[in-house]
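Hey, does this match?
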Amino acid sequence: MVVIIRALIMATMAICLISVANAAQGTATFYTPPYIPSSCYGNQNNGVMIAAASDAIWGNRAACGRMYRVRCTGATNQGVPQPCKSTSVVVKIVDYCPPGCKGTIDLSKEAFSAIANPDAGKIKIEYTQV
């Protein structure tokens, strides 16, 4: 019995490590203040390292409060050929980016600026839930 339990624990750990290692890919845009009210928290201020989720991750409000590590991986247009900064940012989902949203995640301007040149407007990203 102990051997079976150990095997299950090891399998679960391997699955967790694989899922963490596989970041999702998408695009990011940004929006500007005011950041309240928001779909998730109404008039509660959640700071500036925040984001709005598109339908790809919204999940009928399930994304509210989730934290994502977002890293710029490249340009999506010819305007700024190398927009990325060599850092990532952790953001909290506080809002919904409605249909027609031009990115997977719509970052606050401050969060976008931390990982890329805002003149790019839209970037390619990798993101993982933390």
